[in-house]
Q: What sequence folds into this?
């Protein structure tokens, strides 16, 4: 599946999952290029909610180090994809 | 092989003790009010018990042990082993178990030693004491567990201070031919730094720099003799290992979820415990929680939850239980045990 296509396992789907994982985020308000640290609702609890979503939806995990190194939602999705290969 | 069966041991008694001091998370003003409300809702922890100055884990365990031994009416000279699981011992040297042996008036023939484990400590300790008794040479054993995290967590650390509570607990075990207990335990020491007090051991001896408070982040000030908690690593570890170990112990016992009356997990926080419960597809009514009133009480959390939530039932009816502890180490341990009327005094407060 090419980058940008909407469907299972795409960055767009990850963005939607990310939006629904965190309380108070307007659906459609984020994009793969969003820097998650700049999101108003982003805090340690939001981070854990995203990790829980990654576990449930992608059956993998993002480590503390990988989280610290990532800036955008696309970066996080890249971490997931790298573990799925 | 991490999964094993331990024969011929019965859980005869269980008790728990908490300090009278209460600290409410609603008053934790290092966190803004709205965020505090959200934190309490997410972690499920409204208040925690806090030991007084000079009140040690061994004091809580001593009171819990007196309560259960009084009701059990075990002659003290018949107790062959005492194992104390803690990370908040009375002294660096000696171990605290001998002090408790003497204080509880147990005989000099009693084996007594400490184990340094936290959240996995109760189930690990059950495995150790049950293994000591299984051959029938030693007949009665006490497992004492607990911690006073209030003494080791910085009150100025918003990432940890609202989570932990102080408590001690006791399980009384005896040789009883025909019984079977199933255990699944494991360790991942690569994660040792996920929960750590850096200074105070021989790797980093205490020096003047150990006690200097450092600002780690907004709302996180602590020194090097205080606990560091890496929430992300612990979270990933728990979601990865706990469902697996619970499935392993059920498989070892040849049982399904429907065969088990209650799953008592280490009380980490409600958010994590709910995720684990959902991953295992366990009905909420089979998974008791004491997080609201007591928070995360380290190795005491499983027995404290049994005493606070299942006391009536476990003392009057046969029960099948799965117990699962996980955390610092990193380590984990799950136990499948069938009970038949356990002596269980109400939670003691001192």
A:
């Amino acid at each position: 599946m090419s980058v940008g296509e909407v469907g299972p396992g795409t960055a767009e789907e990850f963005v939607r999952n990310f939006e629904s994982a965190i309380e108070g985020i307007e659906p459609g308000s984020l994009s793969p290029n969003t820097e998650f640290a700049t999101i108003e609702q982003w805090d340690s609890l939001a981070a854990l909610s995203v990790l829980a979503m990654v576990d449930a939806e992608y059956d993998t995990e993002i480590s503390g180090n990988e989280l610290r190194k990532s800036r955008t939602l696309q970066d996080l999705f890249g971490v997931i994809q790298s573990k799925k290969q | 092989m991490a999964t094993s069966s331990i024969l011929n041991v019965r859980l005869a008694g269980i008790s728990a003790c908490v300090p009278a001091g209460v600290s409410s998370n609603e008053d934790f003003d290092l966190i803004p009010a709205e965020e505090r409300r959200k934190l309490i809702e997410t972690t499920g922890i409204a208040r925690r018990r806090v030991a007084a100055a000079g009140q040690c884990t061994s004091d809580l365990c001593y009171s819990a042990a007196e309560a259960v031994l009084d009701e059990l009416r075990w002659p003290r000279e018949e107790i062959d082993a005492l194992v104390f699981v803690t990370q908040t011992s009375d002294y660096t040297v000696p171990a605290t178990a001998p002090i408790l042996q003497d204080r509880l008036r147990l005989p000099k023939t009693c084996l007594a030693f400490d184990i340094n484990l936290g959240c996995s400590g109760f189930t690990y300790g059950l495995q150790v004491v049950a293994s000591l008794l299984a051959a029938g040479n030693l007949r009665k054993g006490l497992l004492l567990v607990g911690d006073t995290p209030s003494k080791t967590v910085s009150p100025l650390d918003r990432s940890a201070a609202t989570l932990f509570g102080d408590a001690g607990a006791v399980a009384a075990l005896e040789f009883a031919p025909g019984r079977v207990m199933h255990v699944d335990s494991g360790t991942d020491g690569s994660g040792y730094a996920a929960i750590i007090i850096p200074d105070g051991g021989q790797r980093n001896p205490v020096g003047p720099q150990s006690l200097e408070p450092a600002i780690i982040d907004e709302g996180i000030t602590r020194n090097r003799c205080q606990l560091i908690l890496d929430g992300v690593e612990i979270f990933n570890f728990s979601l990865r290992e706990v469902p697996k170990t619970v499935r392993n112990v059920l498989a070892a016992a040849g049982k399904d979820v429907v065969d088990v009356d209650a799953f008592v997990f280490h009380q980490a926080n409600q958010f994590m415990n709910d995720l684990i419960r959902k991953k295992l597809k366990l009905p909420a009514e089979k998974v008791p929680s004491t997080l609201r009133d007591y928070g995360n009480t380290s190795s005491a959390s499983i027995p404290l939850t049994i005493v606070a939530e299942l006391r009536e039932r476990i003392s009057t009816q046969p029960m099948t239980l799965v117990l699962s502890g996980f955390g610092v180490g990193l380590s984990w341990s799950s136990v499948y045990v069938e009970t038949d009327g356990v002596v269980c005094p109400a939670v003691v407060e001192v």
